[in-house]
Amino acid sequence: MEGPSLVIATEELSFFKKQKVQNGKLKGQALIDVQSWGKHLLLTFTEVKLRIHFLMFGSYRIDVPRENRTPKLELRFKTGTVFFYSCAIKEVDEFQYDWSIDLMSRAWDPKKAMKALKNQKEKMICDVLMDQTVFSGLGNIMKNEVLFRLRHHPETKVGALSSGQQKRLVEEAREYSFQFYEWKKKNVLKRNWLIFRKKKCPACGKKVTKRPTGSLKRLSHYCTHCQKKISAC
DNA sequence: ATTCATGTTGTGAT
DNA sequence: TATCACAACATGAA
């Protein structure tokens, strides 16, 4: 689950704010606040704070539980129940996050990302995009889509991009995050993928290359014709 | 039926 | 000490 999906989760769970949990360990505590930071869902109760991460396969349901699955956490409220599945849940004392790097945050600051890029010239752009300390909330789908939109090869090094191109990369990461959010909300995300899990390049029709790239070795989908690798000079 | 993949963390080796 | 590679986790979709 990527950042924009967490914002949607935040909106859906905010519906239960101010209500008391009626079951389990948190019984009697009210849900005070619901936030997200990158791929983290942050729940503040009267006495505890929970950080929930959905990893690759995590999910949540409201009111309708999954059949034959035991939720990691179940929160029963007066007006509904939230079920969390296959996620990592951690109780923390404080939420200490730098909101200026969260792509979905109002506090997001492109200068922060630019500064990080200047310091990581040797990194491939496919790796830096996935770096949660630079682009918090950006996942593998978004990585592929952002790179295609800018016609960049995943293995181009950060330092091989001009400063203008770096700026475009940062801006596009932000812009696509919101586009992802809109499409996801309308349930049309998949049909709007341009390169991710596509067989043919939508621009030139050539076969899409699919292979792990960068030191993270996460799968990249890209067109070798439209996305040329830029070499440092 | 089997393999893959929207992700992170911890462990042990180098 | 720092970095690296890999396992573990868990599940719907291809």
Terminal CA distance: 37 Å
Low-confidence stretches: none
Number of DSSP strand runs: 9
Characterize the overall form: elongated
SSE order, one letter for each helix or strand = HEEEEEEEHHHHEE
Radius of gyration, Cα only, in angstroms? 19 Å
Q: Summarize model confidence as the mean pLDDT.
A: 94
Individual helix count = 5
Describe this structure in words.
- The structure is a single chain.
- The protein has five helices and nine strands, in the order αβββββββααααββ.
- It is of the alpha+beta class and 233 residues long.
- The model has no long low-confidence stretch (mean pLDDT 94).
- The longest helix is centred in the C-terminal third of the chain and has 23 residues, at 163-185.
- The protein has a four-stranded antiparallel β-sheet with strand order 1-2-3-7, covered by helices on one side.
- Helices cover 25% and strands 21% of the residues.
- It binds a DNA duplex (14 and 14 nucleotides) through helix 4.
Describe how the helices and strands are arranged:
Layout: H1 3-13, E1 31-37, E2 40-45, E3 49-53, E4 59-62, E5 73-77, E6 80-85, E7 88-92, H2 110-118, H3 125-130, H4 140-149, H5 163-185, E8 209-213, E9 218-222
Antiparallel strand pairs: 1-2, 2-3, 3-7, 4-6, 5-6, 8-9
The protein binds a DNA duplex (14 and 14 nucleotides) through residues 1-2, 5, 39, 53-59, 69, 85-86, 88, 130, 132, 139-142, 196-197, 215, 218-219.
